[in-house]
Prior knowledge:
Elements: E1 20-26, H1 40-59, E2 62-73, E3 82-92, E4 96-106, E5 113-126, E6 136-137, E7 140-141
Antiparallel strand pairs: 1-3, 2-5, 3-4, 4-5, 6-7
Amino acid sequence: xxxxxxxxxxxxxxxxxxxxxxxxxxxxxxxxxxxxxxxxxxxxxxxxxxxxxxxxxxxxxxxxxxxxxxxxxxxxxxxxxxxxxxxxxxxxxxxxxxxxxxxxxxxxxxxxxxxxxxxxxxxxxxxxxxxxxxxxxxxxxxxx
Length: 144
């Protein structure tokens, strides 16, 4: 796979979000696990939705998730937390986009954002028939 040169996302210093805001939502009681904390699968799905929005803008097409790597659940998310997902482009391949996603939470009575989860998500550009298609850059297809 031929990659387009991209500046890699700088690792977060964990003091403030980096990248583009992809999605923001409120953690609700229906999203909890048996312990009353927000279920990790809910958080992962929010990151996937946000990353899909980010990847679709880069690819200028529909995208589907093909891989999730290096997920790190750092802190719990609680009911009432405001959860924001930020994305940074890691690389663009011929048909794929890899995005580093960070989920940050602001506690119900807090003001400071806390890094709760991060990971790398890879999406593939697809056509109307659901088949992988090359990502176009400035009207030109990325070479194979």
